[in-house]
Protein 1
Amino acid sequence: DAGVIQSPRHEVTEMGQEVTLRCKPISGHNSLFWYRQTMMRGLELLIYFNNNVPIDDSGMPEDRFSAKMPNASFSTLKIQPSEPRDSAVYFCASSDLTPLPVRSYEQYFGPGTRLTVT
Amino acid sequence: GNSVTQMEGPVTLSEEAFLTINCTYTATGYPSLFWYVQYPGEGLQLLLKATKADDKGSNKGFEATYRKETTSFHLEKGSVQVSDSAVYFCALRMNSGGYQKVTFGTGTKLQVIP
């Protein structure tokens, strides 16, 4: 398997522009996570999907952020409008959270998208 | 709520030195515990795990033992290499509201110098 795929790997945009980050989870995984990593706040969980349904979006910073998972093989994280403080590395991770039989529930991370908002 | 506390870095060691990175946790119930490693420019990858008290996780010369009495899961390696330079994250997983929630620590940067 190719692992979790994220695109783009790097994104530089101007304040006020819309940014869309994309993620393809590992085939067969039923859960998907979006994280944000910064020096100041470390690794933060933004939103978590299970079977394409958002389960916990309490980490989404504000209404400028939105995430969708239209099918099991694709998710997007959108920021509109973007601000300089959104500059960070955004990671997507996927996992198989099927409860039975017992799984490791290991999260597999993508390589991340480095976003710079000027 | 659940939380993970790691020692602050960076930790700088000479090659072949002994490594300990401390991790303690707070959780209601019996979590599973993990160490993830992040190499420069990459995402996190699972290094080792332990799912119940007294379990020892091990991989690539790294070890960590699940200590319920001290709520700890310290990472150790007997002889570090330059290639071990990375950021290490301690994490716990608990069932929360019917689903598995993972809580990460803030990460500890390790620098190994030749």
Protein 2
Amino acid sequence: DTGVSQDPRHKITKRGQNVTFRCDPISEHNRLYWYRQTLGQGPEFLTYFQNEAQLEKSRLLSDRFSAERPKGSFSTLEIQRTEQGDSAMYLCASSLGWAGAGTDTQYFGPGTRLTVL
Amino acid sequence: GQQVMQIPQYQHVQEGEDFTTYCNSSTTLSNIQWYKQRPGGHPVFLIQLVKSGEVKKQKRLTFQFGEAKKNSSLHITATQTTDVGTYFCAGAGGTSYGKLTFGQGTILTVHP
């Protein structure tokens, strides 16, 4: 399967714990995005990378959230001191992206469902 | 900030009936993308519209982008049970080329 993969698919944690999610984009896709989706809502943008550079962060992304893409391939999203309000599906997407392309087609992974007890 | 509104929130149809969902943006978009999400699944890309007034068809699905590039619609002719799911529009615009702003989605239920 050459699509976007995410790990783990499900995560249950206790309030106050730290969690880390991983996303592997489609090979050769330069752009990688993180979104959060709660029940009954559309995905909400969190942040995106062009290669290893983090180009934009949403105001939704509090100081407890950090994302990295150190080598321009896979990415990690860490949530520190989790709160019950962090419970959601965390979606990763990737796109080809090239200079001047604007927004190109984003392909989504299966998501990581986080439950904070 | 940019907002994308989508109506209706829910639509129940009998198999064979048509279905339309509408999307409106608070700002002019550079392009709009449509996604389908099955229950328990993730968003799957359907199409991207870029040009003002653009119309694209995929079999029974017709997508339109408004002249002002602020609204869009998806029309499905003669729905089938396989069309069940949530349809999202997602707009890109302004100076934020990477960010998609999603609508709330329209949940389509098709009764056989």
Protein 3
Amino acid sequence: DIQMTQSPASLSASLGETVTIECRASEDIYNGLAWYQQKPGKSPQLLIYNANSLHTGVPSRFSGSGSGTQYSLKINSLQSEDVASYFCQQYYDYPWTFGGGTKLELK
Amino acid sequence: EVKLQQSGDELVRPGASVKMSCKASGYTFTDYAMHWVKQSPGQGLEWIGTIIPLIDTTSYNQKFKGKATLTADKSSNTAYMELSRLTSEDSAVYYCARRGGIGTTSNWFAYWGQGTLVTVSS
């Protein structure tokens, strides 16, 4: 199975700040990567797919980048509604696997 | 608007089975595969399997073979997952999630149900 390692596991940032979350795959996943946001008590919501494509309705302050085994999610100008957990997922090879998550809090 | 409505939370005895549903609306049910995902505090998010309703084809994470059975009813636009021989390890929230695109490589999870909490306890 492809292992997905996210960092950091938790993050504290101020409103307006730019935040970056990293995801490393155990092998090349050829941009088969998605990012999700999950707020407490809610289901995950898709933010980014194909490493850098923004899902419909997602604010443009979210962006994804990377290639090979290294990917990142950037949130520009952090808003209060961005407080959530974030997960990466690879869909290059079976079984599809997720990162362990990053919990983002306000400083 | 795409919507996935899952059945209610379940409290089940160890050794029993449970079957949960996921009713889809807002798109053509047979155009997209449906994934199922487990979320538990200890194991995070895990992909269980996928069903293609158009041709009733399933694929499973090896870890969940024999544990989960996926089916779909095209007449009611509903996907189902049955979990068998339940233990405490199966206590979790289970989500259905629609495949992102029509293509077979579009295996991101574009839309999610609200989740079904399964608690296994005597």
